[in-house]
Amino acid sequence: MQNKVPEVTIAFWTIKILSTTVGETGADYLAVHVGLGATLTIAITLSMLAASLVTQLSTRTYVPWIYWLTVVLVSVVGTQLTDVLTDVLGVSLYTSTAAFAVLLSVIFGTWYYREKTLSIHTIVTRHRELFYWTAILVTFALGTAAGDLATEALGLGFSLGVVIFGVMLVMMGVAAYLGADRVLIFWLAYILTRPFGASLGDLLSQATEYGGLGLGTVVTSIAFLCVIVVLVFLHTAARVRQSRISST
């Protein structure tokens, strides 16, 4: 089958960051404002993610709307996994961050042992795609735990969290420009976009007394979802145009 992951461009990173923000605000909206609670929310979103993954795995090529819908749902589920561990089971953010980091290392180690590559440009077999989505889910959970650890447990706050994780992302870009290993930089940046997006989502949605701008989870989620839909639509239209040009 063809490579199932889009090209890594500015649009890719923009949609990725927006999806992480939607994961943070969307999960909070369902669990708190709708009143579903963490357990019921993760049960519903897991079912939606399972359906989306089945659709994604059944395709033979990259389909933008299916791929990015799956990413958004993975973001929500990844957020909920950390929230359930922290709020329901009482697991320390230090413990969950370390546990997810170890789990991600095991996934990458197993993936590399079997396939001899971690490059997203080679997701052309079912095994690699399964490794890819498993790693993606754990990066979201790890990013959520690390972000909550920094902004809440360590008391950095949402604004400072956005700045710190934003600077770290810029450093990843500079490292890639200077010739650092692109695969390593990609995965480090992928992890960092989660706490950056989550901090941004909390900054925009949380009440002013908690250090946010008070826009609310509904407004923030809808606004970012609309931008994601527009970007995915434009990306799809560009692929269709390119396909027509190639066929002629």
TrEMBL record:
Transmembrane stretches, start-end: 30-53, 65-82, 88-109, 130-147, 153-177, 184-204, 210-234
Q: Which UniProt keywords apply?
A: Membrane, Transmembrane, Transmembrane helix
Task: Look up keyword Electron transport and say if it applies.
Answer: no
Report whether Transmembrane helix shows up as a keyword of the record.
yes
What the entry lists under InterPro entries is as follows: DUF347
Q: What name appears for this protein in its UniProt entry?
A: Membrane-anchored protein
- Source species, please? Paraburkholderia hospita
Q: What is the lineage of its organism?
A: Bacteria, Pseudomonadati, Pseudomonadota, Betaproteobacteria, Burkholderiales
